[in-house]
TrEMBL record, chains A, B:
<comment type="similarity">
    <text>Belongs to the acyl-CoA dehydrogenase family.</text>
</comment>
<dbReference type="InterPro" id="IPR006091">
    <property type="entry name" value="Acyl-CoA_Oxase/DH_mid-dom"/>
</dbReference>
<dbReference type="InterPro" id="IPR025878">
    <property type="entry name" value="Acyl-CoA_dh-like_C_dom"/>
</dbReference>
<dbReference type="InterPro" id="IPR036250">
    <property type="entry name" value="AcylCo_DH-like_C"/>
</dbReference>
<keyword id="KW-0274">FAD</keyword>
<feature type="domain" description="Acyl-CoA dehydrogenase/oxidase C-terminal">
    <location>
        <begin position="284"/>
        <end position="451"/>
    </location>
</feature>
<dbReference type="Pfam" id="PF00441">
    <property type="entry name" value="Acyl-CoA_dh_1"/>
</dbReference>
<dbReference type="GO" id="GO:0016937">
    <property type="term" value="F:short-chain fatty acyl-CoA dehydrogenase activity"/>
</dbReference>
<dbReference type="InterPro" id="IPR009100">
    <property type="entry name" value="AcylCoA_DH/oxidase_NM_dom_sf"/>
</dbReference>
<dbReference type="InterPro" id="IPR046373">
    <property type="entry name" value="Acyl-CoA_Oxase/DH_mid-dom_sf"/>
</dbReference>
<dbReference type="InterPro" id="IPR037069">
    <property type="entry name" value="AcylCoA_DH/ox_N_sf"/>
</dbReference>
<comment type="subunit">
    <text>Homotetramer.</text>
</comment>
<dbReference type="InterPro" id="IPR009075">
    <property type="entry name" value="AcylCo_DH/oxidase_C"/>
</dbReference>
<keyword id="KW-0560">Oxidoreductase</keyword>
<dbReference type="InterPro" id="IPR052166">
    <property type="entry name" value="Diverse_Acyl-CoA_DH"/>
</dbReference>
<protein>
    <submittedName>
        <fullName>Acyl-CoA dehydrogenase, short-chain specific</fullName>
        <ecNumber>1.3.8.1</ecNumber>
    </submittedName>
</protein>
<dbReference type="GO" id="GO:0050660">
    <property type="term" value="F:flavin adenine dinucleotide binding"/>
</dbReference>
C-alpha cells in the first residue's frame, strides 16, 4: 500500500460534512471556491505532497543543511520540490490576489497544508516563512514596500524569514537589544545579533526579505520600544533591480534533533558594513504587528504538529494491518500469528491515535473556518465574536495540539516495535520533527499562560463563554440522538466542570493566589483541550449518526460507524480523567510554589 | 556548575535511609559491604561516570558505529572508557567472585548503574550485554563452558550479546526459525538469521560469546521447541587458545533514532561455513532459561530509562537556575528578568520531574534490594515471597518506568526552550536514547500484558496481595505523622481502588471479557505504577518527616522538606487522576474491540 499522509475520506468529511465549506462560496468573496474547485485543490495538494514532498522527506533529513562561509545550502531535493511548489502557486494560498496570492478560504488551505506538512514539514517551513513575512508586508507595508517586495515573495521568487529571538531574548521578546538608528533618508541602520532564525539564509532563492524586530535608539525599554523593520538580504533598487549586499550575515546554523531540512540560523546585522532597513508599520508598534500575525503563525504550528501525528497514525495503521506477530489471545496454543491490529493493546493504541488526530483535524480546520466566517461577515459584533473565538482557541490549537501530537508520534513509533526506532521507517523522523512544534512560536508553557492570563478574561470572559455556547449547541444536538445521549451527558458534565475550573482560576488571577493559578496553567490548557477534542468528536458523531440513518454505501458505513465508536471511546475514557484533572486544578495545590529552590536538588 | 547525572544526596538517601542497605552486611554473604565500602563504590562509580563516560556521550552519538565488510567499529572514545571500566571491575558487579564477579549486593550495583547509565547509556549497553550473556553461562553452563568462557567474559576480555529476535519473530519469540542440527560430537551446527542484536559485533573485544536461541531439528513448534546455544565468534580450543572463525557474521547495522554508540546488528549464522554452538542448559528449555534472566534484563532497561530521565532532570534544574528570562508575574511592568526556576510553570515542571524520577529511583533500587533479601534468605517461603514481589514489580520497573522516563526526558528538553532542541545540550540525546527502552526486552505493551495476564494471578494472586501489604505498611506509618496523614488517606483510597480494579480485571480474564481486560492492560500498568510511585514518595516522606524532627543541618533540612513537599505534590495531583483512570478501566469500555478493521481508516 502506498504511503498516505492524511486520510482523504476524513479530510473531505471535515470540509464538506462537518464544516460544509461550500457555504463560503455563496459569498462573492469566495465565489470561485465551489465544491468542485475545492476538491480539485485538495487533490492537487495531495498529489504534490505524495509524489514530490514525501519522496524527499527522508533524504532531506539525512542530507540536512550545510553552512559554509556564510552560505547556507539546503537539501538538494528541495530545489525541485520548491520549483513545483512555486509553480503550483501554493505559497500564498489565502493571500491577496492583487499581490500574487490565491485568495483561497483558509479552511481549504488547511486541507492542503495538512497534506504538505504531513509529507514534509521541514520543507514546508521554507514556504510558510515566506508567506508569513509577506503577510506582514501586505498588512503593514507602504505601497512602496509592497511594490518592491510583495509579489516576488508571494510568488516565491524571493524568500522570507522572521528575526525575533536573541540569545537573551527568547520567551521574553521585550529583552531584545538589536538596535536601529535612523538615517537622514528615513531608512534605518540596523545592528545586532539574532538566533534560531528559520530560513535566515537559504540557496533556494536569490534574495530574502527579513522582517526584523529592533529597538530604535532612545525607544522605551521592554516591548513598548520595539519596532519592526524590513531588511532585504540584497538591497532592491527603486526599479526593482537587485542592489548591493545588505550586510545581514548568517554566522552559523544549529545542529538539531530534527527538521534537518530547515536551516536554523544565527544572524548578524550590520556587523561589518551597513545593514539598512525600512520601518514596517509604525515606530514602537512592532510587537503589535507581531501579535496580529501571531494567531496565524501559531495555527500553522499546530498544523505542523498535527500533520506529523496524523501521518504517523496512518503509517502505524498500515503497519498494524500488515505485520503478523503473535497468535490471538483466545486462540488455542500453537495457533498462527495474526495481524497485530487484532491485538487489543494495539487496537486501543490505534483508536487513541485515530480519535485524537481526527479531533485535531476538526479543531484546526474549524479555526480556519472561523477566520473565513470573520472575513465574510459585515457585522462588527459578529466579526468580534469570531475573533474572540479564534483568540481563545489559538493556544489550544498550538499548545494542546502539539503536546498531544508528540505523544501520538511516540505511539505511532511504538506500534512498529524495534522497526519504529530505525531510520528505515518514517516514524522516528516524524517524532523528531514534531518535537520542535512544542517549542517555537511561543513554548507551550507560554501558550498555557496565554490561555489563562489573556484569553480566559478576554472581553470580560465573553470570548470563553462564546466558545462554551458553541460546545453546548453540539451537546444539544447530540442529546436528540439516542445512541449519543449518554456521551452528550458526559461532555456536558465535563464542560460544566471546565466552566467551574475556569471561574476558580479567573478568581485566583485577581487575588493573592495568582501564582497558584499560573502553577496550574498547563494542566488547565490540557483539560480545556481535552474538552474541545471531546466536542469535536461528538460533533462528528452527530453527523455520522445522521448519515448512518440514510443507508450509506458499505465503505461509508464503516467510516461513520468509526466516528460514532471513536466518540464513545474518547468521551468515555478521556473525559472522566479530564474531570479528575479539573478537580485537582480547583484544589489548587501549592507544592511547586512552596518548594525552596535548594530543595529541588543539590 | 559541573554536569551531574544523579543527585548523590538522593542516591545516598535511598541506599542508607530508605533501604538501610548496610543491614545486608550483617550477613556473611555481603559482610564486606559495610557503609564505608558502599560509599566508596558509589564514589568510584560516580567519578568514572562523570570523568570518563559523560565526557564521550555526545562525541559517541555524533560518531556512531560503522560497518564495513562484516566488521563493526564502535566510537573511538569507547575504547578508553571500556579499558577503564574493565580495570574498575564493573562488568560483573553482582556476579560470582569465583568467576571474576564482584559479589556486590544488587542494591549497591543499582547506584553504580544509575551513574553509569545516566552518563552514557549507549556505552553501558556493551557492558550489560557481556554481563547478561555471562550470567546465562554462570546459571546454565557446564563446568567446561564456564572454564572456557566465563572468566574472560566477566573480566571483559571477551564480549557477549544475545541472539533472540528474527525478522518474523519479535514479540512472538516462539515463531523463530533459526535451526540447530546435532553433530556426532554433541555440538550443534547452527544456521539462520537474527536481527536487532545489540553488540552482535564490536571491535572493543577480540572474541564475542553469543547465546543464541534456535530450534533443534525436529523440535516442537512454538516456544516449547526452543533451545539455547553458546556460539563464540571465534571458536575456543580446549586449552583456551583462540581457534578459527565460527561463521557468525554481522551483515549490517541499523541506523537508529538514538543509542548510536551501540551497534544493532543483523547476524547470519552458518551462511557459508559451519557455525558451531554448544547447548546451554537443556534441549527445548531455552525459553525457560531466558525467562530466568528476563527479570534482571528488564530491571536493567528500567534503570536505563530512569537514568536518562534523572540526568535530564538535573540538567533542566541547573539550566532553570541559571537561565534568566522574563520578569516575575507579580513584578511591576519593566522589571528585570528572573531565573526561570522562579516561574510557576517551570517550577511545576521541575517538581513533576523531581518527584517522578526520585520515585523511580526508589522503586528500582527497591527491586534490587528485594533480590538481595531473597539471596540472603534461608527460608523457602520467604524466598518465594520475595520472588513474587519481584515478579509483580518487574513489568512496572520496566514498562511504567520507561514510559514515564521518556515523558520526563521530553519535559527536560522543554525547560531548555529552543536550546533543548539543539545538539549543543544533552537533552535531545537523552530523549532519543531513552526512547528505545520502551521497546526492547519486550515492548511496554508486552509488559502490560505480563502484569495483567501473568503477574496479577501469580500464586493465586498472593504476589500482588503481598505487594499491597507492603504499601499498606507505609500507609500505616504515614498515618501516625500528622502532616502526612491526609496523604496516607489519599494513597489508601487509591490502593483500594487499585485492588478493586485488579479484582475486576482478574474476573474478566477468566470470562468472555478477556479481550476487554487486555484492551485495558496498558492503562492498568499506568495506574499500578502511579500507585507505587505514590507509595515510594510517601515512604520517603515518612523518613524525611522523622529526620526533620531531629533538627538536621540546613542543607539536609531543605532536602527533607523537599521530600515531604514532593510527596504532597505527587499524591495530591497525580493519584486523584489515577483513581479516575481506574474507574475508566472498571467501566470496561469496549470501543477498541468494537471497531471494524475498515473503520480505522481507508
Amino acid at each position: 500500500m502506498a504511503q498516505e499522509v492524511a486520510d482523504r475520506r476524513d479530510v473531505d468529511f471535515v470540509l464538506h460534512e462537518q464544516l460544509e465549506v461550500e457555504q463560503l462560496s455563496r459569498h462573492d468573496h469566495f465565489s470561485e471556491f465551489t465544491r468542485k474547485t475545492v476538491d480539485l485543490i485538495v487533490s492537487e495538494a495531495r498529489n504534490l505532497a505524495l509524489k514530490e514532498l514525501l519522496s524527499c522527506q527522508r533524504e532531506a533529513d539525512e542530507e540536512g543543511c550545510t553552512f559554509d562561509s556564510g552560505q547556507v545550502t539546503v537539501p538538494k531535493a528541495f530545489h525541485r520540490a520548491y520549483d513545483l511548489f512555486r509553480q503550483g502557486e501554493w505559497i500564498a494560498m489565502c493571500d491577496d490576489p492583487a499581490w500574487g496570492g490565491q485568495g483561497m478560504p483558509r479552511t481549504v488551505a488547511m486541507a492542503a497544508e495538512n497534506y504538505f506538512n504531513g509529507a514534509n514539514f521541514p520543507f514546508m517551513l521554507h514556504n510558510i516563512l515566506i508567506h508569513g513575512a509577506g503577510k506582514l508586508v501586505e498588512r503593514f507595508g507602504t505601497d512602496q514596500q509592497k511594490d518592491l517586495y510583495l509579489k516576488n515573495m508571494y510568488t516565491g521568487k524571493w524568500g522570507g524569514s522572521m528575526l525575533l529571538t536573541e540569545p537573551e531574548a527568547g520567551s521574553d521578546v521585550g529583552a531584545l537589544t538589536t538596535k536601529a538608528v535612523k538615517n537622514d533618508d528615513g531608512t534605518y541602520r540596523i545592528s545586532g545579533s539574532k538566533i534560531f532564525i528559520s530560513s535566515g539564509d537559504t540557496d533556494l532563492v536569490k534574495n530574502i526579505i527579513h522582517p526584523v524586530l529592533a529597538r530604535i535608539e532612545g525607544a522605551p525599554a521592554g516591548t513598548a520600544g520595539i519596532s519592526l523593520f524590513l531588511v532585504p538580504k540584497f538591497r532592491v533598487n527603486k526599479d526593482g533591480t537587485p542592489g548591493e549586499f545588505n550586510d545581514i550575515v548568517c554566522t552559523g546554523i544549529e545542529h538539531k534533533m530534527g527538521i534537518h531540512g530547515s536551516p536554523t540560523c544565527a544572524m548578524t546585522l550590520g556587523g561589518k558594513g551597513a545593514c539598512i532597513g525600512t520601518l514596517l508599520g509604525e515606530e514602537n508598534k512592532g510587537m503589535r504587528a507581531m501579535f496580529v500575525m501571531m494567531n496565524e503563525a501559531r495555527l500553522h504550528v499546530g498544523m505542523q504538529g498535527f500533520a506529523c501525528a496524523g501521518a504517523s497514525y496512518l503509517n502505524a495503521l498500515n503497519y498494524a494491518r500488515d505485520r503478523v506477530q503473535g497468535a490471538a489471545l483466545t486462540a488455542p496454543k500453537g495457533s498462527s500469528g495474526i495481524p497485530i491490529i487484532q491485538h487489543p493493546d494495539i487496537r486501543r493504541t490505534l483508536l487513541s491515535m485515530k480519535t485524537a488526530s481526527e479531533a485535531m483535524r476538526s479543531l484546526l480546520f474549524y479555526v480556519g473556518f472561523l477566520e473565513d466566517k470573520m472575513t465574510l461577515s459585515a457585522d462588527k459584533d459578529e466579526k468580534a465574536r469570531y475573533q474572540g473565538l479564534i483568540d481563545v482557541l489559538i493556544p489550544v490549537a498550538k499548545g494542546y495540539v502539539t503536546d498531544r501530537a508528540f505523544e501520538l508520534c511516540s505511539s505511532g513509533l511504538q506500534v512498529f516495535g524495534g522497526y519504529g526506532y530505525t531510520r528505515e521507517y518514517p516514524q522516528e523522523q516524524l517524532l523528531r520533527d514534531c518535537r520542535i512544534t512544542q517549542i517555537y512560536e511561543g513554548t507551550n508553557g507560554i501558550q498555557a499562560m496565554d490561555l489563562l492570563g489573556r484569553k480566559l478574561g478576554l472581553n470580560q470572559g465573553q470570548a470563553f463563554m462564546d466558545l462554551v455556547t458553541e460546545v453546548e449547541q453540539t451537546i444539544g444536538a447530540a442529546k436528540k440522538v439516542t445512541e449519543l445521549a449518554s456521551l452528550a451527558d458526559t461532555l456536558e458534565t465535563t464542560l460544566n466542570h471546565l466552566k467551574e475550573t475556569a471561574g476558580k482560576l479567573a478568581g485566583d488571577l485577581g487575588s493573592k493566589n495568582i501564582l497558584t493559578a499560573f502553577a496550574h496553567a498547563h494542566p488547565f490548557l490540557d483539560v480545556t483541550g481535552d474538552t474541545l477534542m471531546g466536542w469535536m468528536l461528538l460533533w462528528r458523531a452527530v453527523i455520522a449518526a445522521r448519515k448512518l440513518g440514510d443507508n450509506p454505501k458499505k465503505k461509508d458505513t464503516a467510516f461513520y460507524q468509526g466516528q460514532v465508536t471513536g466518540a464513545r471511546f474518547f468521551i468515555s475514557t478521556v473525559l472522566p480523567v479530564a474531570q479528575a484533572k479539573m478537580a485537582v486544578i480547583q484544589a489548587g495545590d501549592t507544592s511547586a510554589l512552596d518548594m525552596a529552590d535548594t530543595a529541588f536538588g543539590s
